[in-house]
Structure formats: C-alpha cells, structure tokens
Write a structure and sequence with these properties.
This is Tetratricopeptide TPR_2 repeat protein. The protein is mainly alpha-helical. It contains 32 helices and no strands. The longest helix has 17 residues, at 284-300.
Length: 591
Amino acid sequence: MTKKLDLNMPLKKTSAISTAVNVTLCLLALGLSSCASNTPNRYQSDTLATNNEPASPAEKTLSAEFVYKYLVAEVAGQRGEVGTAGAIFYDLARTEQDPRLAERAAKIGAFANIPSLAIPAVKLWAELDPASTEAQQAMTEMLIATGRLHEAEPYLAQLLVKEDTRAGGFLFINSLLNRSPDKDAVLKLIQSLAKPYPELAEANFAIAQAAYVANQDSVALDALAKAEESRPNWTIVALLKGQVLFRQSPAKATAFYYEYLKVQPDANEVRINLAKILVNQKQYAAAKAEFPIILENAKQSTENNGAEIYAIVGLLAFQTNDYNEAEKDFKQAIAHNFKDTDQIYLYLGQTAEKQKHDVAAMSWYNKVSSGPRYLEAQFNLANLIARTQSTDKAIELLDNLEDLNVEQQILVIKAQAALLAKDKRNQEAFDLLEKAVKNLPNTPELVYDYALAAERLAKFDVMESELRRAIAEKPDFAAAYNALGYSFADRNIKLKEAINLIEKALTLAPNDHYMLDSLGWAHYRKGNLDKAIQYLEQAFRINPDPEIAAHLGEVLWQKGEFEKAKKVWSDALTADPDNEILLTTANKFKS
C-alpha cells in the first residue's frame, strides 16, 4: 500500500540530547555501519559480544545469584528484551566491578537507543577500564554530547598521552568538538590541551581551527604561523589561513593563495579554493585560468580523484555561466566513474535548463533513481514544469509522489508553497502551510516558511509570533533571527531589537553576506549611515549580490556620494540586468 501526502499525521517529538548521545555511542562504542534502526525484533547475543566476553560461570567460581542473573540477561536478550538484558548486565557490572560487563551494558544501551542505560553504563565502563581507548572515547563523546566540556578534558588529554598517536589525536579531538555550540569554551579547552605541546604543528592547527570557528581570527592566524614554523607548506594550514583571511577580505585570501601556489604549484586543494573565491567575486576570467591547471594536476596526481575534480571544475564553470564547459566536465565525471551519478544527473539537468534545453533537462532529471537524490530531482522537475507549462501541473506532479515519510512530506509541502509564492499566489501558499503546521509535526523550518508566507500577506503578527516560535524551538536558527530583524528594519519599527536580532544571527552564522546586508539596512533605518555603509560594503565584498548593491547604493546616495552610488548600481545592473529590486532602487534615485 502506498502513502501519499497526509496532513493529518500525529505529532512526534524526540529528545535532541538523547539523539546526540546515542548517535555518538552508536558510532564510537559499537562501530556499526548504521544506527538508524530501532531495537531488532530478535536480539542476537553475538551481535553485541566483544572480544573480552565476561567469563562464563564454568570458567570461574561464581555465586549462584550471579549465574542466575547472567543467564536471565542472556535469555532476555535472546527474546528481544534488550532493555532488560542491558539493565541486568549493568547491575552485574556494578556489583562485580567488571569492565567487560559494563562494556556489554553500554553497547546494548547504545544499540537499543536507551540513553538512561547507555550513559551510566559507559561512565562505569570508562571508570573500570581507564586503559581502554574505546571506553575513554565513548565517555568523551557522551560528555561532549551533553555539553559537559570541562569534565571531558581529562579524557581528551588521555588520548594525547602516546607520542605516536598524539598528532592524529589533536585532529580527532577537533572533529569531536565541532558539534558543541559553545565555540569559545571549545577554544579554551583545546588551548589547554595543546599547552604541553607548543611546537606540535597539529596542536597549533587545532587551536587555529577552534579559533576560526569562534571568530577569533587573530588567535587563529597566530596559531597557524606556529604550525607553519613546525611544518612548512602544510596544505591544510594554507587552506585554513585562506579561509581566515577571506573573512577579512577576499583580496587578502586570493593574494595569499597566489603566493602559496608559487611555492607549491601542485597543491590542488588550494588552487580549487582560489578558483572558488574568484568565482564568488565574479572574477570569471581569472577563475577560468585555473581550471586547466586543476585538471592537469588531477591527471598527474596519485590520488585517483579525477572524477571528483571534474565534478568540482564543472560546478565552477557552471557558476561562471560557461555552461558548455560545465556540461563537458560533468560528462567527464561520469566517464571517470564518479560514485554519485545521480548528483551529476542533477547538475546536468540544471546545466541544460540554463541553456534552455528543457527536454534534455527533463531527461536528466528523470534519470535520477529512487534514492537519496530522487526527491531533489522531482523538485527540479516541478520547477521546470511550472516554468514551461503551469504551476498547477507542477504541484500535481509533487502531489502524486508516493511512499513519503513525514520529513519528505514536509519538504514537498514547502516546495509546493514556494511554487505558489513564485506564481504570486500568496494566499494559497499561506493556506497550504497553515494546514501543514496544524496537522504535521512542526519543524522549525516549516514554521519559518509559514512565517514568511504570512509576511507576504502583511500578516505581521502571525509572522512575528511564528518566527519567535521557530527561534524557541531551534535557538541556533540564524535565518529566523535574521528574518525577524530584517522585517522590523524594513518596516522601520523596533530598530533596536532588529539590530540585536541580526547581531545574534551573525554570531550563529558569521560573515553571512545576507545577514551583514540586513544589519547594514537596520543601521540605515536608524540613521547610522557610516555603520550602514561599513556592513553593506562588507557584505558586498563577500558576495556582490544585486539586492545588496541596491541597498548599498541607496545608503551611499543618502550620504551624498552620488557618483559612487551610481557606479555600484551600474556595475550590478551589468551583471544582473533584470533584478527587480535593483532596477526599482536605481530608477527611484536616478530620477
């Protein structure tokens, strides 16, 4: 029986902390390829067995009570009662102080998705077996997932004791900590861990990476300089330095990459990053000059990653509007056995659309198999049908998708609402999203779309309450803070709160050009023209978007810098001659 869109499904909530703990335990303690399934119908004891199974009753003198409980646990496991089995093993581990039983209980708790068992069991396991790297890693993961960074420090330090694994340990620690929301605390923790190893390149790189994430660029650059002293021309140091410099200015990043490539011309990752920045800055000729070098380096490389390089260069060519080159490179990626062919089919479909080869685009989208890319292909197909036929036919296509889970249903509804909004059918889009938020599990992203639909109908009270709800449900939802702040600024109300909201968004998504544009616009509304220009110019340097150009030009005009404003508009119109906001703004002031 197939399942179509259903707006009357029951709500379901999960604990984010429980999910985080169990994901980390699944990946680290169990080493399983997938932890997505729930408790199996029939528990197999050998699935959770370890190389150090507790000695059986026949192998040592044990009390009758221990033997009885042990056998009960085994039988419970065989019957699929894994919670009972794990609880008994945990109780036995505490009584006997046996790390093997604690490990067994921890792994059962993780596999069966029982945080109330997994957390204390892994803690006991780590305490009873301090020499076990696996136990210490599992304990560390659990502490990080629950936000207890200070308690995690001694466990992390233990991972760095052995000299032969210390360098890799620092890189591993960074990957462990990147999910923690308190970036300043992560930086302090890594600085403390690195203090005994001031000349280790990996230790300094770990500090730099944490500092970059915490927006402490001077700390990052200082640590990178130290890493460079210990390990000259290390590629990942150069890559990170370029990212840090890019935040200061794209010109600084490109200048650094060009200098680095004079010394290390075969550093393809650096050259690819350089090309990306050049494309981002619309320096298309300079970017294209790098493409053949990137492809030639890939051919000479022993890494056998030619397919991936062709895909990357194809994407860069696509962004420079060189669609013939992009199509050629994407086809070469397939010819070189690119693993994710469905992704390339999507790229080829988008490339064909840009060339107005609509029939070819449909053919590429229809090649995408029923897997993880299928829904995206259907969305692209729907957009193409809406453009070439009608919005109603596009919505019908999405309505007929079957076997969708709840998350996919929500994505489909969001896509349908976007199609309606693009067709200026704002009331229909609002009605569809309103029905969804009333009848489907509410994700912050769904609530966000509903709020924006309300704003398009000037239902500002609904928009504000829904965006505040999205923020409450997802406190790190940068786009929601920005949307609410920008709405206030655009309507010239609550300007102090608008600035606070957008500044909060920027702490969550540093140097996002749209958010910098919002902050500049809010300062403009407040009359802070110099600050407005500062943020708008920063946003425009990162991405010369036409709407940012419209805002920047307007503020410059109001400041009396008429010629500079005209040039900003003129250059932007050359690149994007049909942008409505840019045209309206430029014409309003030029007249």
